UniProtKB/TrEMBL annotation:
SMART domains for this protein: PIG-X (SM00780)
Protein name: Phosphatidylinositol-glycan biosynthesis class X protein
Transmembrane stretches, start-end: 197-217
Gene that specifies this protein: Pigx
Pfam family, one: PIG-X
Keywords from the UniProt entry: Endoplasmic reticulum, Glycoprotein, GPI-anchor biosynthesis, Membrane, Transmembrane, Transmembrane helix
Cellular compartments per GO CC: endoplasmic reticulum membrane
């Protein structure tokens, strides 16, 4: 009977993710509905661990500003991100996003993460590159509450349980069922036949702007 009760209580969590806006600068919205029956998870922390492929990155300076205003809480692995690197020189990035309870749904959590598309190599015909996002891993941490952990398996995550403390605690991976296994981000890409035109326009713009700066320095500068 105990085994049957545990199996009945261990329902899969439901995970959905959605990309908002268009173009290079997007918001990744993640929603989680935990399938835990009869458990009080008020003192627990839920997080989504997402592996971003090289075609997408998060800006650590933007995240720092958002965290200062308590708009989000994120842990980056690694914490150093080259925001200028193109897709073909970048590496994967793991993001641990702390989720907030959804007031309209019991046992539901959500979080929004600002993400940015990287520049790709120019293509021959396609005007868009496809960047595939896998479904995130759902993690739960109950440092201040003793819950049964039959539904979860320990996860090796070095991160604080919540914003109230700075020491790591035991995280558990929640078995989940994604609504969609993958999410595809469409990133604009330049065409190879436009290389000469782009180079010419860039050169002319650089010369024009440099001339304006030089003229302003000569006119308003003070030289001893």
């Amino acid at each position: 009977c105990d085994v049957l009760d545990v199996q009945a209580a261990c329902q899969d969590a439901i995970v959905t993710q959605q990309l908002l806006q268009e173009g290079f600068h997007r918001d990744l919205l993640v929603k989680v509905e935990l399938g835990i029956m009869g458990e009080d998870i008020g003192e627990c922390t839920v997080a989504a661990r997402t592996r971003l492929p090289p075609g997408i990155y998060v800006d650590p300076y933007e995240l720092a500003s958002l965290q200062q205003h308590n708009l989000t809480k994120v842990v980056l692995i690694p914490d150093a991100v080259d925001v200028e690197a193109p897709e073909y020189l970048a590496t994967d990035l793991v993001v641990l996003t702390y989720m907030k309870p959804d007031p309209q749904c019991s046992h539901c959590f959500q979080a929004a993460l600002p993400v940015h598309g990287r520049y790709h190599r120019p293509a021959e015909n396609n005007r868009e590159a496809l960047v595939v996002l896998k479904s995130p891993e759902v993690l739960i941490c109950c440092c201040d509450n003793r819950l049964s952990t039959e539904c979860w398996k320990p996860s090796e995550v070095e991160a604080p349980c919540s914003g109230r403390n700075d020491y790591p605690c035991q995280w558990y991976s929640v078995k989940h069922k994604p609504v969609y296994e993958e999410l595809v981000m469409h990133v604009p890409v330049g065409l190879r036949q436009h290389d000469s035109l782009v180079c010419l326009v860039t050169l002319l713009t650089t010369v024009f702007c440099s001339s304006l700066i030089l003229a302003a320095v000569c006119k308003y500068g003070h030289f001893s």
